[in-house]
What we know:
Layout: H1 6-17, H2 20-40, H3 43-65, H4 79-87, H5 92-101, E1 109-110, E2 118-119, E3 124-125, E4 131-133, E5 138-140, E6 145-147, E7 152-154, H6 159-188, H7 197-227, H8 232-236, E8 240-241, E9 244-245, H9 254-262, H10 286-290, H11 297-306, H12 308-311, H13 320-327, H14 334-337, H15 343-346, H16 349-355
Antiparallel strand pairs: 1-8, 2-3, 4-5, 6-7, 8-9
The chain binds zinc ion (2 copies).
Membrane topology: Multi-pass membrane protein
Pfam family, one: DHHC
GO cellular component, one term: plasma membrane
Amino acid sequence: MAPSGPGSIRRRCRRVLYWIPVVFISLLLGWSYYAYAVQLCIVVCLMAYHLLFAMFVWSYWKTIFTLPMNPSKEFHLSYAEKDLLEREPRGEAHQEVLRRAAKDLPIYTRTMSGAIRYCDRCQLIKPDRCHHCSVCDKCILKMDHHCPWVNNCVGFSNYKFFLLFLAYSLLYCLFIAATDLQYFIRFWTNGLPDTQAKFHIMFLFFAAAMFSVSLSSLFGYHCWLVSKNKSTLEAFRSPVFRHGTDKNGFSLGFSKNMRQVFGDEKKYWLLPIFSSLGDGCSFPTCLVNQDPEQPSTPAGLNSTAKNPENHQFPAKPLRESQSHLLTDSQSWTESSTNPGKGKAGMSNPALTMENET
Ligand SMILES: [Zn+2]
Ligand SMILES: [Zn+2]
C-alpha cells in the first residue's frame, strides 16, 4: 500500500488545486460558446467562429497535455559518478567529476561562476537551456516557464502549441468583440429586446475585450522572444557561455529562429502539431557555426591544452541531430556564406570574443 501521510495528502490537494486555472478557462470557454453560438447566434459569423473555437480548443488541449521533455539518459550521471560526487566535497574536485562526465556532451552554457550546470535534485548535467521546474520537480528541456493557466511546464515539447494557443485565443477574443460590438452598443441605447440574451451579449463583450488586451501583450512579448530565440527565463537572465554572458547566444537570425520553433514545413506552422527542429538537448548557436575551434573534438581538445583558460571547459561539437540544423539546409549556413545576411552574426560581440582564442 502506498504511504498516505499528511505530506502526501497535502501534495495531492495541491495537485488538485493546480487544475483550478484550467477549469476556469474551460468553463469560460464553454460559457462563451453558449453565449455566442446559442444566444447571440449571428448565422453568417458562426462558421468562422467555429473554426477559431476549434483551433483554440485544439492548441489549448495540446499545451496542457503534452508532457514536457526531460534530458536524455546520456545527461544522467552513472552510479560510479554519483558515488564519486557524493564522496567529493563541493568545490574544485566536485567540478572535476562533472567536467569529466560532461566531456562528450553537447553543452555550451555554464553557471554564472563558469561551472558545469548540474541539477542536484535530478542528479544530471543540465543540457543547454534546460532548467529545473520546482512545481513539476523535474528538469525541463528548453524550459520557458511553468504556466498555471495550462497547469503544465511550457518548454521544448509544447512551446509551439503555447504560441498557437495565445494566437488563437487572441483571435477568438478579437472576433467575438468585433462581431458583438454592434449589439453591445444597442444594449446601451436600449435597442435590444428585453431577453436573457441581453446580459450574455454584454458580458461576452466585456470578457472578450478584457482578454484581448492581456492576450495581445503576452502574445506580442512571445513573438519578440521567438524572433530573438530566447525563452522567458533567458529574457530575465541571459545564458552564460564559455566566454561569458551573451543575451543573443542562441539567436541565428529572424527566419532561422522562427523555423527552430515552427519547423521547415509551412503546412504545419498554424497547426498544433509538433514540428519544432532539434532534439531539445542541444541548440545551434552562431558562435559554434563561426568558430573554427568547434567543428571537431580533437581540435577543440588540443586547443584547450594550449590555452589554460580554456582548459576547464573543452569545446565540444554539436551532435549529429543538431548539426543538421546548421549544415543540412543551405539557409542554416547562409550566415557564414552570405556576407549580407551574415552581418548579424559578424556584429555579434560574443562572436568576436569566441574568435579571440
Ligand atoms: Zn532537475
Ligand atoms: Zn513545471
